[in-house]
Amino acid sequence: MSFTAEVRDELARCAPTCEYCNIATLAALARVCGTLSVRGGGHYRLQVATETGAVARTMIGLTHQILKLKTEFTVRKSVLHRVRNYLIALPDQPDLEKALVLLGILDRSGTLVRGIPHHVVARDCCRLAYIRGSLIAGGFVADPRGDFHLEISVQGEQFAHALADLIGQVGVRARVNRRRSSFAVYIKSADDILRLLREVGAQRSVAEIEEARVVKSVKNAVNRRVNAELANQGRSAGAAQRQMELIEQVNALGLRQSLPSALSAFCDLRESHPDLSLRDLGEIADPPLSKSALYHRVLRLEKLVEAAGPDMNESLQ
Predict the structure, then answer these.
(1) What pLDDT digit, counting tens, does each position of 15-49 carry?
(2) CA–CA separation, 40 vs 154, rounded Å?
């Protein structure tokens, strides 16, 4: 089961807070993945098509519980994609128009509502129930082991912005983006995704995201440290090679025998350990020397080479 399916399934099992929450959830389900057909004389037919069992189960259960309407249920299997497709239809019947008004799909004059009616989301808990229903119907939550991303696919620009505003009322910033013939209400911030899922009741999914977030943070910290160590090793190796070249110049100029004891000891130590960093080289010196002390000896050697052979001047730190 994908992470999105897990989130949808968990949300579908959330209990309502008040007697109107189920109406808000059902309204969102019908609006996000439903299609309304209208015939003359006020005859309607509402169809909800989904590949998600949680949507089908919730839609049928709430329709029977709240609206007391007859439903038609069909299961189809795609040969190409090998997935099941559920079709729930509310055929034309005496109380269907009243139900569509109750769900905020039609207004009292029979006109299609473009946004989200206030009476459906008047209470705070109903607002969360509507968002929950939208996530169950058209939500996508990326696997938290990858990028953090949540979006709800809807039809109609006005409805998309209304849903984004509704999400904003619970303190989460959502954006709207056009996707061919539909619109995506999306969230990219991990903190906002966690807050929204926590608000709508997906506690198990929140825990899974937080765990993945910690693991990802540890991996990133380890990668940064490894990269830093590799970079340091590369710089140290390069510096050690340049110091070996400096010693070769000292030898070529005949300066080795006349070097002060400190510089001569450094040359012997570096030639014995050509791959060590200055810090590691100082630790094995007798007596031990600091990195700064060894660096100053390198500078003194450079000045001797510059004075003895100007044409060989080269920065070799």
Answers:
(1) 999 989 999 999 999 999 889 998 877 789 999 98
(2) 27
Q: Any idea what DSSP says for residue 273?
A: -
Domain-wise residue ranges, the chain = 3-201, 235-312
Alpha carbons 262 and 93: distance in angstroms, whole number: 102
Dist. CA 209–CA 7, nearest whole Å: 11
**Which residues, 6+ apart, have CB-to-CB distance to 309 below 8 Å?**
249, 253
Show the CA angle centred on residue 127, arms to residues 10 and 15, nearest 5°.
Answer: 35
- Provide the token pair at 171: 């303190």
Q: Pull the structure tokens for residue 144.
A: 């938290």
Nearest to 30 by CA among 110, 99, 125, 98: 99
Tokens at residue 163, please? 């849903």
Partners of 183 in the β-ladder: 154, 178
248 HSE (CA, 13 A, CB side): 10
Confidence grade of residue 80 (pLDDT, cut at 50, 70, 90): low
**Which residue do the tokens 């005496």 mark?**
94
Burial class (CB within 10 angstroms; exposed 0-12, middle 13-18, buried 19+) of 17: middle
Helix axis angle, 53-62 to 124-138, nearest 10°: 140
Q: Could you tell me the end-to-end alpha-carbon distance of the chain, in angstroms, rounded to an integer?
A: 58
Beta bridge partners of 131: none
Whether residue 66 has pLDDT greater than 80: yes
- Is residue 202 within 8 A of residue 10, CB to CB? The reply is yes
- The CATH number assigned to the domain with range 3-201 reads 3.10.28.10
CB 245 within 8 A of CB 211: no
The pLDDT > 70 percentage for the chain reads 95
